[in-house]
Write a structure and sequence with these properties.
mainly alpha; 0% strand
């Protein structure tokens, strides 16, 4: 159970830390004078991020997969999986090759976007960060719900996407 708790806790900590840091920057937005177009951009961006990152990215993809991997880890712990449980649960190793490539590419893309967004000035940087916070918060909630389902609902049918055994 330790491995599963570490996998869930570590993943939630990574997402939660991002929400905290970006949330602080997002709050700075409101210390600047905002015009109507800032408010419009904020509204449109938050709606877009809630749908694309929160719903499509997390709720439909990341969260059920991570929850399935947490449940798999609970049943099949190894020393390496336990030590690196958050990375295992997020799909950085012991996962289908295609999904692993997607995971690394998405991570690299996120790092590049973070660097680019950090060059924006307020209030635009804060507007972007508020949208990201909404998406990440949706992800945290959906991950908690899917993980609860993975451990309590016998009909939970999401795949941990483990690689095929070598022959």
């Amino acid at each position: 159970m330790f491995a599963a708790a570490w996998g869930l806790g570590g993943t939630l900590a990574i997402l939660g830390w991002a929400v905290y840091r970006l949330g602080l920057i997002g709050l700075e937005t409101f210390s600047h004078p905002l015009s109507w177009y800032h408010w419009l951009a904020l509204l449109v961006w938050v709606a877009f991020m809630a749908h694309s990152e929160g719903y499509k990215g997390f709720q439909r993809g990341f969260s059920p997969r991570v929850a399935a991997r947490i449940a798999f880890l609970h049943q099949h712990p190894t020393l390496l999986r336990t030590l690196l449980a958050p990375l295992f649960c997020m799909g950085f190793f012991d996962i289908e090759r295609r999904r692993q490539i997607v995971t690394f590419c998405l991570t690299l893309g996120i790092i590049v976007l973070v660097q680019l967004v950090s060059m924006l000035t307020q209030p635009w940087r804060g507007i972007v960060d508020i949208g990201v916070v909404v998406g990440l918060a949706w992800g945290i909630v959906s991950l908690a719900i899917f993980t609860l389902q993975a451990f309590t609902d016998d009909s939970f049918a999401h795949s941990p996407q483990m690689p095929a055994p070598r022959q």
